[in-house]
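Chain A, query sequence.
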Amino acid sequence: MSAVGLRAVAVPAGLALVVATFLAPTPALADEVPGLEHMPVYDAADFVDDVADLPTDLLAALERDTDLTPEQYLAQGAAAVVAVEVVDSIEASGVEVLGSRLEGTELVVNVDSLEDASLVESTGATAEFGEPDPLWQPATQTPEFAADLYDGQGWIWQDSQYRHQCSVGFTGYLLSTGAPQFATAGHCTADMTGNAFIFNQTSPGQVGTVGATIGAQVPGTSVFGSGNDVGRISSGGSGIVQKSSALTWGMGSGAPLSSTPDLVTGRSAAIEGQTTCKSGSRTGWACGPIVDVDYTASVDGVQVNSIVAALCVLPGDSGGIAIAPGGKGLGITSWTTTPGGCNKDYTVYYDNQGHPYVNGSYAGFFPLVSSAGGPSVTQNYSSTWEIAATVAPPTVTSISASGGSDTAINGSVPGAGVDYRVDLYVDGSSSVFSTVNVSASTGSWSVNVSSLPTGIHSFSAVARYGTYSTSSPTTGFVKRGMTVDRIFGANRYETSAAIASRFSGSNTVYLANGQKYPDALSAASLAGASNAPLLLTEPGVLPQSIRDAIAAVQPDKVVILGGPDSISDSVFDSVRSLVQGLDSSATVERVAGANRYATSLLVSSRFGTSTKAYVATGENFPDALSAAAAAGDVSAPVILVNGTAPTLDTATRNLLVQLGVTDVRITGSSLSVSTGIANAIDAIPNVSVQRLEGVNRYVTSVAINQNAFSSSTSAYLAVGTGFADALSGAALAGQQGVPLFVVRNNCVPPETLAAMRTMGVTTVHLLGSSSTLDASVFALRSC
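Chain A, predicted structure.
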């Protein structure tokens, strides 16, 4: 065994081995040695919540085959992935590693000097002195290949005399073309002729039936002996679909799919002390501890580099997989010490010369990866073939920003390991913007987006294992060089006044009840078309902020919307006294109907003529608010209707005809404005109808604005669950000819961001304080 190989010191029941533990001097700091990895602490308690994601059958198998709790199983799996990286980094620093293992989740590394022990301890691992004693005595055991030359299951091939059975190993792809091929044991394929066939079984070991044609041996891929045991078979047969998961056979010896297959998420080197599970067509699914790695087994005079585990495989299991917690593939089933049957008696016995030996079943697996650089699947195939993996979509954990511009997208990939990458696509392009490696130990990744031009940009992040195993995309948005500001005050009235201050050259002011929305909905588009601010007031008192805003405009006219129940006569008188004190010729008038719909008709009639009109429900506000900005831009009314009515009322029909409307845009679905109303409008001579709708108020807002604005450098955002800020804001947006989108209070819907990106928006105005639209909206973070 190589001096840098990973060797076990765990002992079976009945055998006590003593290993001297280093009392190392004060450890050197790990960061003093470039590239030295650190071993975190993995507490099983931290994995309690993850146990719920484990199949119940796997929990049963853990109880049956191991002494691990589910939490310990998950913690050990996470620790094993990092432990291999830590040991590799220790060796890369020049330390001679005599052995290493996991004791639970603790990494123990054997070295032969105090200096090396100090470095080991600085990584968070435990250092031990001297070469560890081995668990088993291979010289007293005679491994045999787990191949069967006839009858079997999993996959088979036939010659003139026999049917040869092995197990499918790791599915994968030919790198040059992506053609599907699976890896299996080389001693299964070395003498193979003809095609391999699926062998259908209802349970492992059962004499099954021959199924579909899989494909032929891939020429030149079988390597058997000189440390190797691997071959490949084409799996491009008609109807064959590769799955990157391992059969679990009911977590034992049940039907192949009677329990959830274990997803293969990549590959990893093995480390002694970790648990592995194997799947094979003869004995099914079982789990056990790894007791040796990079062990050279002599089997019928042929040498095979091996991972050795204390579990049973039998002829017919050859070519199956060994897999670690978390789905990392470890190796391909190669040999067994007990070909005649399984023996779980791991008691230590002694022969006539006093040599110890263990009577239990051991299995050998040809490694996917060898930490010691020994023969492995990867060493043979790294330039021609890769395994297939199930890749989880990447998550975006944060977006870094500087000076208001996003600089990097940061995230993680659940279950990631070596050879994981993230490809980032931007703005719908099919070309990759950037590819970054994913940390094998933490699963983290980060893409720098500082080179993107000014604007909002959509992105799609796809995790990838190797070349051909990819995840579904994770989408989002980033901003570069955007100007974002707020227009707000301490309350809705001060916010309304702040919005009004953005108008210039106005001669008219519209005044509406700030506690109710109906009267102001139609007025917002009229105010925008008239270059007039729409201010809000309390019903019985004119707030000082609104008084000051009116005085700042010095209007010739103030239009009060709604009757005395909406805005009292005392407020009317206060406004008249105020404006006539500034200009004695100024006038104040009230526009009020018997109800919200009548008031809407009166307001809309003030347009005089208009070929376009928007029709919205008067029972709610979001659709009309978005329509108000679009309508104000083209001097079109927003007419409110009772959306649940079966047909259009006569008064509204007459107004459409009177205005000369030929183009009606209905905002919202048939639940907002009924099909009967739409049909009645469509029946008016020379009038066409278009419905603008989405699955919710936010997507409807996008539909309205995309219909009205093909481009815009500015946009307004208002909360979609309140009306006050958007009433005044819709008038301003309409006056400026830019869209107003309603959004959530804590994020921007992706449809909204996509629309602003397409329009070319570079300046965004938020209507309301941070309690209305929070910091995530200000940062234009996607929902």
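Residues 150-387 form a domain with the Thrombin, subunit H fold (CATH 2.40.10.10). The two ends are 55 Å apart (CA to CA).
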